[in-house]
Amino acid sequence: MIPPRGSPAPRDRLALLVEGGLPRGPDSPASLVGLEHEYVLRRGETKVDFRSLIHALPVDGLRLDPGDINAYRCASGMVLTCDDAEAEIASPPLPVSPRFPERVVEWSTFGGQELGRLLAGTAEVEGYSTHLSAAMPSNINDAVCSLYARTFAPALMLLIDRPDSHGIFIRPRPARAEFCGEFVTGDRLAATAAFVAGSARACANAVARGHPGASGALPPELRASPGSAPDRFGLYLPRTAFGDDLYRNGRRTTLHRAGGGTITAQEQLESAWESARTALRGSASDADLATMDRIVSGADGLGVEGQQETAASCHEPPPGNVLGAVTSARARAGFTVACAAATWDWSLFRLASGSRQAYLLIPRRPLARFLELLDAGDLDEVLLACLDAPGETILASHAQTREVGVFSAVGPTAGLLAPEREPSTSAALELSTAARAVEAAAAIEGATRPGKRPGKRSTPVPPETVPAPPPPPSLPLRRAWRRPLMPLVVTLGALVLLAGGVTTVVVATNNGGGPSPSPTATSGSPNAESPQSGATTTTAPSRTAPGGASPTATATCAPNADCPGTSPVPSQTVQGGSGCPSGPNCVNGTPVSPQASPTSPNQPPLQASPTATSGCTPGPNCPNGTPLPGPTPSPTSANPPPVQPTPTATEGCTPGPNCPNGTPLPQPTATATTPSQPPPQPTPTPTSPNQPPPQPTPTPTPTSPNQPPPQPTPTQCIPGPNDPCQ
Q: Pick from 355, 383, 472, 451: which is nearest to 716 by CA?
């Protein structure tokens, strides 16, 4: 359907209906708070990696976050994921309004109970850490975090940490400031949430005015020595960041002011809470702040004073959150709507009708109205128009996620995430004055997104996990077989150089009349006394004749079906003996040297050079008295056939079935081979014109120039957050 001339485009009509008069732009400072709780899982004394469990749990949710391969957005609005080996639950962003500390505790309790229900007793759950975030515009975030470290940080450290803790982290994240400390629940979590929201807002107000210490709006600024936070960009404040050990001395700790003089930690705590309480005026009730009032006064203990955790009461599940409603697909008259990707800041929906499709980007602020109008059918007409004319715009950058949009296609969803900086750049976050806020904001906005830290959100599930998350995309097939072939080519070249000095060695018929040594496997190292050219494989060592020559032993044999004349059939190497038994390996009285092929999958095949010998009955395989070399078998597979015994001839025996004409038949002795290379196989040779030659078992030749290389089985592409398989 083509819209009438002059009518608004479908995208503009959708934005008008959904956004209405809603304000645009970033959230105001500390207008939202969010909670993340991490848990350690144990079975007895053994720590359990949650990544090995999460994808086998009956989670009521979808994996929608393009920056976290393990995250499930649950129907409740909570997110369940992994942070390294720890389990993590995260609440949706919660408005800072009356009763917000209580709601933070409700989400904490619900998340812990839901995690325990999913694990169903398979592992014990132990609290690990608390992360509280406050909404913060990016253009002042660095300056706010820097100022916070010099003013409010000691009070937060006393409140959230324990006597044996190491310190806290303060991190400027995209559109929020994050404060990380020990695991807290119940009343102390409520007090901490109130303090974080109020203190972050007080810092933001001071930075916005440009006078951080004006009119006593903030606690005194202190001298601090922070470090760089690991894993993510930000500041690390150890327990000695302000001089004396804050966790050992508690409220009595002496702190040094930036402008000179000292102040006790208790005085700093009182000043900090007064500033935070003032900033929360109108956003929290007296009941919301009562717990923190008792802690500051000393009626309740601080965390570093060993205050025991208050058990959280059993709460009903928090009311349904709009950020959980996106997990439900919706069917309308003539089309369907399903969420394809989502973060706390935006949701991406796929609109489909038959072969037609379009993508809708809805920011968090108008999301509730969009879903309400969608369910009521008030968007049916405009969404059908979006399907008819989606345009040719491709969604590919974070900047496109700030307003309602309609797109014909989507690029890699990882590119839609807000940029973050690497920890190595933490030095840029100096403890400077608020006048550097603009420079810090420019650094944030201009940064390129490096992706999630290795070992954090993009860590694949360990191998024992069932089922595993989507695998990374495989290499193109052409490159996939070339990569393993290169080591084979290098190895082949090295073996050719070595083969120039190695040949199959046999001992003369009567080598001094001594006994024959037992065959022993060698590694095929070069033999300076055997300058014959031609590649060979692992063979048993042989004594050589004086002068370095290695003559091939020949002798007569008892005439029979396999020895039609007086010349033995070529056989395997005979050690220090004479003659060979009649059979397929001894044609016309001349032993055959084995023409083995390499069987190691990591070693390219070598073609052995056949050695022609004289002295055979003329025939199809022996023109002019010179035997033809037997066929060279193709390289065998990685599963070699059984070891063939190497006969060892000896002299002198009593005539009998095994000793015709006084010449002993060789007794089979297995030839030992090295574990890295299978034993050689004898070369079949036709023995008479009337008997068809035995056919060697065909085996694949991976490096034959007339045969294409083996192609690996293509890896099926499974859609994942970083690989939409488009």
A: 472
| 436 φ, ψ (degrees, to nearest 5) | -90, 10
Q: Could you give the angle at the alpha carbon of 705 between the alpha carbons of 699 and 707, nearest 5°?
A: 50
Q: Tokens standing for 281? A: 């005026």
Both structure tokens of 178 = 């994050």
What span, in angstroms and rounded, lies between the C-alpha atoms of 170 and 173?
Answer: 9
Nearest to 599 by CA among 640, 659, 645: 640
Residue 125's identity, in one-letter code, is: V
Q: What are phi and psi of 52, to 5 degrees?
A: -85, 0
DSSP 304: G
Query: Which amino acid is it at 302?
Result: L
- Kindly list the distances between the CA atom of residue 208 and the CA atoms of 29, 143, 153, in Å, as whole numbers in the listed order: 10, 10, 20
pLDDT at 16 over 60: yes
Angular region, 547: left φ>0, alpha ψ -120 to 50, beta rest: left
Rounded Cα distance between 194 and 141, Å, is 19
Percent of the chain at pLDDT exceeding 70: 55
Q: What six digits make up the tokens of 140?
A: 């002042």
Give the Cβ contact number of residue 397 at 10 Å: 10
680 neighbors 633 (Cβ within 8 angstroms): no
Any bridge partners for residue 62, and if so which? 73
The CA distances from residue 604 to 52, 599, 630, in Å, are 39, 8, 22
Picking from 38-42, 80-84, 292-296, 611-615, which range would have the lowest pLDDT averaged per residue? 611-615
**Arithmetic mean of pLDDT, 401-428:** 84
CA distances to 201, 211, 662 from 216, rounded to whole Å, are: 15, 10, 118
